[in-house]
Amino acid sequence: MIKIAVVGGGLIGRRHLRVIQMASGVESCALVDISPDGQRLADTYSIDFFTDLGAMLDTVTPDGVVIATPNDVHMAGAGACIERRIPVLVEKPFATDITETHAVLARAKQNNVPVLTGYFRRYHPAVIRAKQQIDSGALGRLVSVHCHFWCYKPDSYYAAAPWRTHTGGGPIQINLSHDIDLLLHFMGDIKTVSAVSSNAIRKYAVEDTAAVICTFQNGALGSLNISDTIPAPWSWELTSGDNPDFPNTQNMYGMIGGTKASLEMPRNRLWYYADKPDWWKGTIDTTVLSTTLQNAFTTQIEHFCDVIRKRCPPVVTGEDGVRVMQVTNAIAQSIAQRRIVYL
């Protein structure tokens, strides 16, 4: 049985504890948290509780650690585990300062310690199926991609974790980074970004709304639109059925377009012409690609255990997390300087 410790008892840490309980071949062994509710949360899962990561590592010696702390201390936690040669799954965004990542990943490589980034959507059956379609050439040459995240986060979401109102806590880092990871996964490296943002509604130090245009090295184009101030059904959370905490609206989250076909996500509805493409035709054919519904968060933890057992390499590495950071940093630079930024 693989023993996993969770560092951070906030929203995402609690979700990790829940899925560890549901996953096979793994159990939680400890929680590290500094909040007043930490002990009660640990008692709920009958696991050891600590307020200090070093003390936990001295006492418990877990097989792996999930870092689910506020974003700006991800690297401190990951580094402490890597020094003890303990594999880590670092929640996204991987860090807030890209310079912090270099020493941590270099030490991980030196110690031969696996480092994963928590972009759990990669484990979703719809994402796996979509990637298979792209790689098989079913969409033809990739032309364009669009995805959006529109939702309304209540004031209590920010009141519960004030760090979300400061640098590293806006929806670009918390939510859009998931979309960027998928775009990189589907489309390849990004060449340029151009972005604008607004905090006109919430008036926090971070954005509440943003729009991004990007170009890819393969010549394709992409657009992303994000806001946490709009009552709407169009987000991964409300369309994928992946998280029972959210209703499934059965709507569309994004689109991937190629010269042969287009793919509607996450339902994986493929749109194409049976013969020569022609928009004047009365009908366009469509097929829903079959997928088996499963919880991607649970699959991520089970994969982490397989990595710990040395059965496979990580699906989403620490380097993948840095790759996303490079794009989000370019987006921030584009917003600040009001110009196109080249990566």
Detailed description of the structure:
This protein is of the alpha/beta class. Helix content is 35%, strand content 23%. The protein contains 11 helices and 15 strands. It has a 9-stranded mixed beta sheet with strand order 14-13-12-11-7-10-9-8-15. The protein has a 6-stranded parallel beta sheet with strand order 3-2-1-4-5-6, sandwiched between helices. Helix 4 (74-83) links the parallel strand 4 and strand 5 (88-90). The longest helix is centred in the C-terminal third of the chain and has 20 residues, at 318-337. The chain is globular, with a radius of gyration of 20 Å. The model has no long low-confidence stretch (mean pLDDT 93).
Listing every helix as H and every strand as E from the N terminus to the C terminus, the arrangement reads: EHEHEHEHEHEHEHHEEEHEEEEHHE
What is the rounded distance between the termini? 43 Å
Number of strands: 15
**Average predicted local confidence, pLDDT:** 93
The structural class is alpha/beta
- Helix content percent band: 25-40%
User: Into which percentage range does the β-strand content fall?
Assistant: 15-25%
Strand order of the largest sheet: 14-13-12-11-7-10-9-8-15
Main beta-sheet annotation? 9 strands, mixed
The poorly predicted ranges are none
Radius of gyration, taken over Cα atoms and rounded to an integer in Å: 20 Å
Number of helices: 11
Shape: globular
